[in-house]
Amino acid sequence: MKNTKRSGFVLKSSAAALCLALFAFSCDQESSDQEVVPTLTAETTLDKYYTFLEEASGVGRGDIAYDKSTDQFTVSHDMIVDRNTIDQYIDTDESANGRTEQRMHNILLTNAQAINFKYYIQPALTQGWRDAVVGAIAQWNGVGGSKLRLVQVGTQAEANINVFVGAYDAANWVARATLPSGSGKGTLEINPRFNDMAANQKLFAMAHEMGHNIGFWHTDQTTGTIVPGTPATDPNSVMNSFVLPWNGFTNYDLVAVRYMYPATSGSFTTTIQAENYSAMAGIQVEACTDSGGGSNVGYIETADWLAYNSINIPTSGTYRVEYRVASASGGGRLSLDLNAGTTVLGAVNIPSTGGWQTWTTVSHNVTINAGTYNFGIYAQAGGWNINWFRVTKI
Fold first, then answer.
1. Least packed by Cβ within 10 Å: which of 234, 337, 344, 383?
2. Which of these, 163, 246, 242, 167, lies nearest to 207 by C-alpha position?
């Protein structure tokens, strides 16, 4: 994602149809160390890769740079793709244009990733950028009618996406992100040049980059496959390549993500506000500044608990349970049980979020038989707040 001035963003939008990316994408501006002219030999020729990228992107060879150190190409200063990804297209012996089956196969998240796509936020992020990442996760999770769920996790090892601050770059990119490779790993990098950007623009930038992580192209470019049901122009789309003040997803952003990651037919989900407990021990209710406002449960110490009676589970199977939590004191740990601890379903760690009203969503998958239960949340280690929890059939 790029900006056109050092200070003061031009709120520019010349959007084309919402598109899915053809390959791993990065909102980047080409830097000097990427302008590597490869030495071509009889054994290793890059000509076929340049030719493919010219066909796929519509740009000339002069707008394609190769970085030998990473074995990646940068197209038009924005799109990053590795040779292994291109090989999967070339092996089909088809034109670079219109490869919808291969694109879908190589770019969209697997079902297992889509329902539990994990982000790790490096400690070096400023509070402003951290808030933007956490807020963007919440915005994507608020999209109804989609199975997509983004989750903040406490370690880089378990994450799909590592969010970090790169070296200061005087170039005009705000952040850049890649689609995870076959290993399921990827990155979201922030340029510290823009640490003073307005909070609503930081939120837009992070939501935008997460869009790339899940497979979106820019709306104001003409390559990629048009998502059915989206228009020729959508100037306020989150996938516009210029930073806008955050004003929520457009209707066609929602259409696109629901097309890419539709909710499972016949799926079940229920969200329970934490303050609507049937019984509790040791906690207090306080005002909440998370999206939606209202109240949250706080002052949770080790061995405190909350009970929620008469929650119906319609069918037996695996359920994802998400918890909207915050912690300014180093995190904690909770466990989920049924019927006053008769059945312990599992436990999840709560990361430090940097503030009592700085919210993130953690989750785990549990197995539950059909029936009506009293759910319990138990603080194995205190020091956290909870706004709500959600149970979804997967």
1. 344
2. 246
> What is residue 6's predicted lDDT score, i.e. its pLDDT?
25
Contact present, 26 and 259 (Cβ < 8 Å): no
Burial of 266 (0-12, 13-18, 19+ CB in 10 A): exposed
Return the pLDDT at 316.
92
CA separation, residue 133 to residues 36, 125, 274, 282, 309 (Å): 32, 10, 23, 31, 34
Question: Please, what is the end-to-end C-alpha distance for the chain in angstroms?
Answer: 33
- Phi first, then psi, for residue 387 (nearest 5°) are -95, -45
Helix axes 83-90, 100-107, angle to 10 degrees: 150
362: which 2 tokens?
């953690």
What's the pLDDT score for residue 146? 87
Reduced 3-state DSSP string for the chain: CECCCCCCCCCCCCCCCCEECCCCCCCCCCCHHHCECCCCCCCCCCHHHHHHHHHHHCCCHHHEEEECCCCEEEECCCEEEEHHHHHHHHCCCCCCCCCHHHHHHHHCCCHHHHCCEEEEECCCCCHHHHHHHHHHHHHHHCCCCECCCEEECCCCCCCCEEEEECCCCCCCECEEECCCCCCCCEEEEECHHHCCCCHHHHHHHHHHHHHHHCCECCCCCCCCEECCCCCCCCCCCCCCCECCCCCCCCHHHHHHHHHHCECCCCCCEEEEECCCCCEEECCEEEECCCCCCCEEEEEECCCCEEEEEEEEECCCEEEEEEEEEEECCCCEEEEEEECCCCEEEEEEEECCCCEEEEEEEEEEEEEECCEEEEEEEEEEECCEEEEEEEEEEC
Please choose, from the candidates 214, 223, 171, the residue with its C-alpha nearest in 3D space to the C-alpha of residue 192.
Answer: 171
Q: Whose CA is closest to 28, among 163, 175, 203? A: 175
Least confident of 13-22, 68-77, 239-248: 13-22
Q: Give how far the C-alpha of residue 372 lies from the chain's centroid of Cα atoms, to the nearest Å.
A: 33
Give the whole-angstrom CA distance, residue 102 versus residue 367: 34
State pLDDT tens for residues 227-236.
Answer: 787 776 778 8
The count of other CB atoms within 10 Å of the CB of residue 233 is: 15
Q: Which residue has the tokens 């695996």?
A: 318
